[in-house]
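To: structure subgroup
Subject: Chain for Friday's discussion

All,

I'm putting the inputs and outputs inline so they're searchable in the archive.
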Amino acid sequence: MLVPGKNNNSTVLETGELAALVADLQEEEALQCIERRLAAGEAPAEILRACREGMRLVGSMHEQGHYYISGLIMAGEIMRLAVELLRPVMVGKACGGNSGRVLLGTIEGDLHDIGKNLFRDLLECHGFTVLDLGVDVPPADFVAAEPEFKPHVVAASALITDSFPHLRELVRLFEAGDRRPAGRRPSILIGGGQVDERVFRMSGADHWGEDAFAGVHICQRLMKKNDAP
């Protein structure tokens, strides 16, 4: 593991203390750093940005073979706890506390939920109402939940490549039902560790996010465009 404060990785050190602690998977120290920064009056968004940079470094080190899946799981847990610390402040600052509605789930054939749960927590921090269907969710279940919940965005997470065809099926089912008199179907957003431009084009989805933070920004942009709720 990397040790913050030692010159074993200048890229990590340049990102600042909090990002380095997250990147080094130092859970207790990272949370203490967040508490200090909150107490000093720093904006939660800035703290989240530092955490995001730490997560980016974790992903990079995983790609380089320095971390295994267990490292990604540990980093995801640190982010979950960080969001829990920041949530009360961020929700209090959320404009109106109702930025829009997002129907969320990990697509059929995939049981991964770390990224999905982080995305859900970040959405709620920013004032979105989220209905989380869980993992291994068939496309038809997304469609079945739509009439009552009336989401502005349907967000599907996928990590396992075998689940990718179900993303296309999800889009197809919503397009097939796009003759409702109430107007256009909700926007469909996909994301996940293996989702890229190629998967996005194959799926036919409206948007894709490289990570949970990018997904939140996309949802915010869509709400402004559509003047939700």
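Points worth raising on Friday:
Confidence is low (pLDDT under 50) at residues 1-14.
The radius of gyration is 18 Å.

D.
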